[in-house]
Predict the structure of DNA-binding protein.
Amino acid sequence: MDKDIKEQDIEKKNKNEEKDIKDNKKDKKTSKYKRATLTAKQAADYIGISYWLILELVKRKRIPCIDLGGRKLFRKKSLDDWMTKEENKIMAIDTNDPSSVEKYLNAQENNRREVS
């Protein structure tokens, strides 16, 4: 009886291992971005903005990227860090201090003028 239980446990373990291997292969196939860098289009998709906006941010040097012969590449971690930094800028605004809000709005307006 103990032998049957051990055999069943071994069979169950083997089936679970096979399932894990299949799941791992499936994860690799469905993974959208496997490379260390993303293209501008992939980076825009990753952070949820348009392709044209990411190119504008690159042009203004407001987003980190690698320039390889005119081709713009982005590291995922750099994009994550950049988004965190942008979030922190907004969180740093003290809405109870009008000068803090005014400084932020003026900076945004100056950024818009640079583009025009």
Notes: The chain has two domains: 1-31, 37-115.
